[in-house]
Amino acid sequence: MPTHDRSPIILNINGEITPADRAQVSVFDRGYLYGDSLYEVVRSYNGVFLHLDEHLARMEKSAALCRMVMAHTAESLRKEVLRTFDAFRSKHRGEAYCRIIISRGAGKIGFGLNCLETPTLYTIIIQPVETPPASQYEQGLHLQISERLRNDSRALDPAMKSGNYLNSLLAYLDASSLNYDDALLCNADGHVTEGTTFNVFYVHRGILCTPPLDIGILDGITRRRVLTLAQGLGIEVREVRFPRERLYESDEIFVSSSIKEVMAVTKLDQKLISKGKPGPVTRKLLVKYREEITQLTGARGKS
């Protein structure tokens, strides 16, 4: 059920839990100065953060990609997330959105590591989750294929979940200004990669297709689950490169993310997809995904 209550917001900054209005981060923090940071987002179901360990493991991989030596282990961050969640739950009984941010540290202005005066710094933000309304799953998303190119992996690897997000943010603003819900981005070769905050799939003649990881996309946690669930349903799955025209010709399109789960795309640019309604494969995968969530979180308390 959608939640729009934005209070309380609880933060944990390097182990100190504080309300949002008292939080302070140095202006010399590298995340603020250079976007030199990483992040992950998880949401709770039934008081359980779904796939938290997988998200923290991916954060460690992102750190390796950007040569960041993390001062805190995934296990210690996990404990801090749950400790912050306890503080949140003492004030709010609804479900939560959690954003975990790791900065390379703070110090003097300059790129060199010799400018750093602290180890990596973390911020954990927990607030009520704002989920898409139920009607959005029936209406689907209206997306634009952006003329902005996805970052080349040789420049800023999209496999690294970085706080340097201007590429995706600008694509979103371009699409939003034309009344689209969001945007998809292609690479320099004209192949579709992913959305601003989500992975993308299409269905054609019963075959489910999605871009491969080596094209330069995020290894989405929800993407992984969708591929596994599809195979369990006997759906043929292919990870392939494809141009935007392939999407226009498809029977169904949907996106996946921690917040959106599995959501249909019913209009792409000016092209109506699946007669403007979620297709049968999209519907089946959303049902299976939510069934799995119940299995993972419904029968146990917070862990």
Please tally the helical runs, counting DSSP H or I stretches of 4 or more residues: 8
Specify the structural class: alpha+beta
Q: At the first level of CATH, what is the class of the largest domain?
A: Alpha Beta
CATH architecture of the largest domain: Alpha-Beta Barrel
Describe the main β-sheet briefly: 9 strands, mixed
Arithmetic mean of pLDDT: 95
Work out the count of structural domains.
Answer: 2
Order of helices and strands: EEHEEHHEEHEHEEEEHEHEEEH
DSSP strand tally: 15
Distance between the termini: 22 Å
- How would you describe the shape? globular
- Portion of residues in beta strands equals 25-35%
Roughly how much helix do the residues carry, as a percent range? Answer: 25-40%
Radius of gyration: 20 Å
What key attributes describe this structure?
6-stranded antiparallel sheet, single chain, 8 helices, 303 residues, D-amino Acid Aminotransferase, Chain A, domain 2, alpha+beta, disordered N terminus, 15 strands, D-amino Acid Aminotransferase, Chain A, domain 1
Write the layout of secondary structure elements.
Layout: E1 10-13, E2 16-19, H1 30-34, E3 37-45, E4 48-49, H2 52-65, H3 74-89, E5 96-103, E6 121-128, H4 134-139, E7 141-149, H5 166-177, E8 182-186, E9 192-195, E10 199-204, E11 207-210, H6 221-232, E12 236-239, H7 244-248, E13 252-257, E14 261-268, E15 271-272, H8 280-298
Parallel strand pairs: 7-8, 7-14, 11-12
Antiparallel strand pairs: 1-2, 1-6, 3-4, 3-5, 5-6, 8-9, 10-11, 10-13, 13-14, 14-15
Helix pairs in contact: 2-3
